[in-house]
Amino acid sequence: MILIALGANLPSASGTPVETLRAALASLGARGITVERQSGFYQSEAWPNPSDPPFVNAVASVRTSLTPDALLRVLHEVEAEFGRERGLRNAPRTLDLDIVDYEGRIEHGDPELPHPRTGTRAFVLVPLREIAPEWRHPASGRTVAELIADLGPAKITPLTG
User: Fold this and answer.
1) pTM of the full predicted structure?
2) Which of 3, 95, 107, 112 is 20 to 30 Å from 67 at the Cα level?
């Protein structure tokens, strides 16, 4: 299973963050990356500055013949297509795409697999649980439910509509 986390808290040329995430998933499909499952959309508080616009997040399970590094290059191309400018870390952005897990691989290159902060991010784990409730962190072996429980009350809410 290959898992991609999606997030946005600024509008893009495609519209609102929700519209951007939908368009980004379509853009992945146009590049030969098949979206097999997609979570609903969730809203989470911006971090580290909660006065920034809240994020919209989702997770998708995809199928591709691309290697992890080639997939990461495509994800960066899609981010750029939607106006992502890389500057300050954790700054507001039009689109963020991360490889969460690539078939359970543990790699310390670029990209680092699994994503190094997956186990501590409710905005990734909660949508991930929706599409892959049996998922286990490749490095720790902990279930997605265990990881979420460790975080305490989640500051993430499902978006409706």
Assistant:
1) 0.94
2) 95
